[in-house]
Amino acid sequence: MKKRILLLLLALIAVKLNHAQNGSRIPVTITGTVSNKAKEPLNGVTVTIKDQPGLGTATDNKGNYTIKASKYQWLVFAMLGYEKQEILIKDDLKIDILLKEADHRAMDEVIVTALGPQKKATVTGAVTTVDLSQLKTPTSSITNALAGNVAGVMAMQSSGQPGSNMSEFWIRGISTFGAGTSALILVDGFERSLNEISIEDIESFSILKDASTTAIYGSRGANGVVLITTKKGKTDRVSINGKHEASYNTRTFTPSYVDGHTYASLMNESRITRNEEPFYNNEELFLIKNRLDPDLYPDINWMDMFLKDGAFTQRSSLNFDGGGSLARYFVSGSYINEGGMYETDENLKNYNTNANYKRWNYRANIDMNLTKSTLLRVGISGSLGKQNLPGGTYDEIWASLMGQNPISIPIKYSDGRVASRGGAEKQNPWVLITQQGYIENWANKLQTNVTLEQNLDVLTKGLRFVGRFGYDINNNNNIRRMKWPEGWMAERLRNSDGELVLKRTITEQLLTQRSNATGDRFETLQGELHYNKQLKDHTLGGVVQYTQEKRVNTSNYGEDIMQGIERRNQRLAGRFTYGYQSRYFFDFNFGYNGSENFAKGHQFDLFPAVSGAWNLAEEKFIKERLSWMNMLKIRYSFGKVGNDAMPVRFPYLASFSTDENLGYNWGDIESKNLYPGLTYSRIASNSITWEIATKHDLGLDFSFFNDKFGGQLDYFHEQRDGIYMERKYIPFVVGLQGQDPRANVGSTRSEGFDGQMRFTQKINQLSLTARGTMTYSKNTILEADDQFSNYPYTTLSGFRVNQNKGLIALGLFKDYEDIRNSATQNFGRTAPGDIKYKDINGDGKIDDTDIVPIGATRYPNLVYGFGLSANYKSFDASVHFQGAGKSSFFINGYTVYPFSQGDWGNILTDVVESNRWILGVNEDVNAQYPRLSYGGSANNYRASTYWLRESSYLRLKTLDIGYAIPNGFTKRIGIKSARLYAMGTNLLTFSKFKLWDPEMNSSNGQAYPLAKTITLGLTINL
């Protein structure tokens, strides 16, 4: 009887437990309100179910939320700037939450790395996270905002032309002279361009700089990697954000040239110094000065005539996101219209000849929970760009603007005929800019990607699979519609009736058209297995990734069969991580890469890397004695990465030719006994393989005083071996003809440091932040294909990549006695006032053996920035300075060498305003310009220290002042928040070089100037 009663009780308990368990699985509706400590409702708080990502909601503008869950599950409440809270669901189905403001901790910062997000405290490699709020630029490319804002990035902008005004940039400088130097740019895991992405679409932006963070990319990571993650939708709320900016652009520098009378006087001076008759008499100088005969003696400032004072730019963006527990979306669109600074002909009604650029961007990211453990992400993005240009080419326009002197020709003669000296570069600037038709460049990019994330906890806890497929199409079209009017040139003297004597220099060209199209298709397939495990104080992680890529040209093949062959790469990569008690960390990374550009046996290579870190601030003895130290992490990494970029396709294949100039010589080297025949036009290089970079990095991450002061510092050292280059100095006795063979013979060393620091302070309602960044890099060529020389300074080895080389100037010759007592200069006749050079090798003559390395390189070796931002109530302001140094360049050309091409070439006002050598007036041997010489002086136009200029500068890069419209007002008109702001870009530039913008590093200034911009903007959140 007792046994029966006991069995009955057990049965009743089992039924009760089963009922309870089933009841816990029944979905229930949870409601509540989320507020802050001031009991103000919080809008946009994410409410999710723990361990079920994607299944959640968000609070509305009253702080209310509704979500379906099961009892005894955990609800997670999270919002940026507040501490995360987890609440267990029990019987109470109404859960109100009070979120506490989170203290900023550097250790908790999350940064995006090669294989996913990591807490900053656990990162062992050199990674820079870009503060998106500091990337402020009114142009179409965010690359213009990188210099001085991002540690490890060196950038230079060489043109301000709309649509072509993006900066070149390098991660930690240039460390090779062979293959490509550009960084790998990945957007959502797929290789794409940085210039076409809208900054409003970016969620996170990271720079990977050392071997441990880039080894997983193998052959693609040698020059560093840029990782961009775009925004995704949030659950159960619709957020609409809009921005509009209107900018007015002027020029930072405009080269200044002398007027007509000064030009004519200088021309006379240049002829007198050559013992020649002056070109203009006093009567003609009078006519020019008083502009009494504009046909024969014009005086035109071509730069002022055909460059506007400024131009407008408009930029707008709109994005919205939202969704529910099963799907989320983020959709955006943006538009930019950059106006050009060329003057146009108002009589042209049907087309525009200005340099304008328009671009439309679009993006749609959709996340769908197919199951509780399966997440599907689909992304579609792209851009359509249209660049409009004058019919004259870029080079022709700027050569003519700076070459056409003020007294050579008028725009038109008084009888209406167009003046022209003839030829493309010597064409009338008015014709090139307004009368020669126009050019349209179209660029269309379509980018699609699909990502599948599968949680594999059913197999083992912490296992996850990620698969990606990307398909991109790029098309570029160019149409040039050309025409020009008849051109005429007047004789210097009128006929006996006082009429112009005109000679036709250019015949009329009726409208013609040329078009061109290029395109390519790029496919990417990736698969990843992720595993993470926490075992008490031990953290384990691992990733294995397989990638295959192919790119193929889709147009403009021509007859080159190789252009139609796909370019393929394969990669198997992996990563293993270990951490102990948030103090000690170790990473091992590898990339096993294959490239179709090499012969069999050389196509695959392994690129490993290791790194480790020690966070001293987590040690007990540090916590007890130095409580103000929040983080002090020492990092070190070592590894190898590769580069397979090269200008030649399939270098292991030979090519042949029947070119008569590549026949066989059966006589002496200097004889003409050349017979045609089938010969090599390219020698096969079967052993060509990877360019390999061996990298070391020693870094320090720190944060002190409750994270008020923090930053990171890195020292890096890299040796690049196997640099691919052409063998130019193989002896003739080998018997090779045609193109020289190529080989992995070059080697360089690059080292330097980069870092960034930040200090924040809050005083009542005033918040201040000061920041600074610096990057310094110096490279040295260790090995190159140098010809033997008795003078080591003539080789490439031992000096920098792109090292400037020239003669050393000792000033100017004082008199003929000085010339006789100096080394013979073999560059033509010399006279007093000409440049005197140093005899380096002491052989008594000046020639090419006296050319030595001088100055630095054209590209900056030092880039830095610093700034301050402040917030007070509804007002905010920020200022940022950016500078560059350790670079130099030669100035040359007909504007720098007055009258070097006769009467072709304007004369810089600097020639007149500076200290120049003048016979009998100023015979200073240290004058800034040598004696003027009509027709040129080969001796004075050599690259030398005389013409070497430093391109270092410091500029006020951005000044931003904003006002957040009070919420009380915005809510009444249905807007969550709004901000008005004014921003200035490139407002001030400080530099010793004043002729044109020093950042352009142009040798002759013949380039579209960089822009100085004033912007008014409005951002709205609905």
Radius of gyration from the CA trace?
Answer: 34 Å
Count of helix runs: 11
Strand composition percent: over 45%
The largest sheet, given as strand count, sense and whether it forms a barrel, is: 22 strands, antiparallel, barrel
Task: Please count the beta strands (DSSP E, at least 2 residues each).
Answer: 53
Mean pLDDT: 88
Q: Helix share of residues?
A: under 10%
Quick recap of the structure?
With 1022 residues, the protein is mainly beta.
Fold topology:
Blueprint: H1 2-25, E1 27-35, E2 46-49, E3 52-58, E4 64-70, E5 74-78, E6 85-88, E7 97-98, E8 110-113, E9 116-119, E10 127-129, E11 153-156, E12 168-171, E13 184-187, E14 190-191, E15 202-208, H2 211-214, E16 225-230, E17 239-251, H3 260-272, H4 282-290, H5 302-306, E18 311-323, E19 327-338, E20 356-371, E21 374-390, H6 394-403, E22 418-419, H7 429-435, E23 438-455, E24 463-484, E25 487-490, E26 502-506, E27 509-535, E28 538-553, E29 567-580, E30 584-595, E31 604-615, H8 620-625, E32 629-643, E33 655-657, E34 664-665, E35 674-675, E36 679-682, E37 691-704, E38 709-726, E39 742-763, E40 766-783, E41 803-806, E42 809-812, H9 816-820, E43 824-825, E44 835-837, E45 845-846, E46 852-857, E47 862-872, E48 875-885, E49 888-890, H10 909-913, E50 948-950, E51 953-964, H11 967-972, E52 977-990, E53 1011-1021
Parallel strand pairs: 1-7, 13-16, 22-25, 43-45
Antiparallel strand pairs: 1-4, 2-3, 2-5, 5-6, 8-9, 10-15, 11-12, 13-14, 15-16, 17-18, 17-53, 18-19, 19-20, 20-21, 21-23, 23-24, 24-27, 25-26, 27-28, 28-29, 29-30, 30-31, 31-32, 32-37, 33-36, 34-35, 37-38, 38-39, 39-40, 40-47, 41-46, 42-44, 47-48, 48-51, 49-50, 51-52, 52-53
Helix pairs in contact: 3-4
